[in-house]
Amino acid sequence: MSAKAFLSLGSNLGDRKATLLAALDALDRGGARIIRRSSLYETAPVGKIDQPRFLNLVVEVATDLTPADLLALCQSVERDLGRVRKERWGPRTVDIDILLYDRLAIQTPSLTIPHPEMTRRRFVLVPLLEIAPDASLPDGRRLNAFLADVADQDVRRVED
């Protein structure tokens, strides 16, 4: 029985678009079948601001992977595409986060779903709501209710 999950992808080093497309292909081949994909958005960095701008997108996937196995796939794709974890919120070739997995709320030492920062990140909310306008947290709160709190964050659609 297939689960539905939403993943956020971002890149701000190298050929950002090519890296994101390669990540989507690897996720699809690894068992996270892409159902819908948002437009590409160029966004200002959050947290550590003295770094290049990001390209971001969100995808809906269907998967038979458990949440832990989906996390392992995401981290494997990041490593294969040159991600090196040196600095929190630092520049990266690719970052893949699990935003939502069905209606589950999970908190383990290695995985928190829903993603704990998603409601504070316009670069996540805008592309997610583009492909899932009625998306909500497992507790029922609609994600579009959080947009006003992040209206000042710089997020621009650059490509459909």
Structural description of this entry:
By secondary structure, the protein is α+β, with helices and mostly antiparallel strands. It has a single domain, classed as Alpha-Beta Plaits, CATH 3.30.70.560. Helices cover 24% and strands 28% of the residues. It contains three helices and eight strands. A hairpin with a 4-residue loop joins strand 6 and strand 7. The protein is globular.
Task: Please outline what is shown here.
The protein is an alpha+beta fold and 160 residues long.
**SSE class:** alpha+beta
Q: Please give the CATH class.
A: Alpha Beta
Order of helices and strands: EHEEEHEEEHE
CATH architecture: 2-Layer Sandwich
User: Biggest sheet, open or closed, and with what strands and sense?
Assistant: 6 strands, antiparallel
Helix content estimate: 10-25%
Stretches where pLDDT is under 50 for at least 5 consecutive residues are: none
CATH third-tier fold name: Alpha-Beta Plaits
Q: In total, how many domains does the architecture comprise?
A: 1
Mean pLDDT reading: 93
**CATH superfamily membership, which one?**
7,8-Dihydro-6-hydroxymethylpterin-pyrophosphokinase HPPK
Total beta-strand segments = 8
Shape: globular
Total of helices: 3
Q: Roughly how many Å is the radius of gyration?
A: 14 Å
Question: Into which percentage range does the β-strand content fall?
Answer: 25-35%
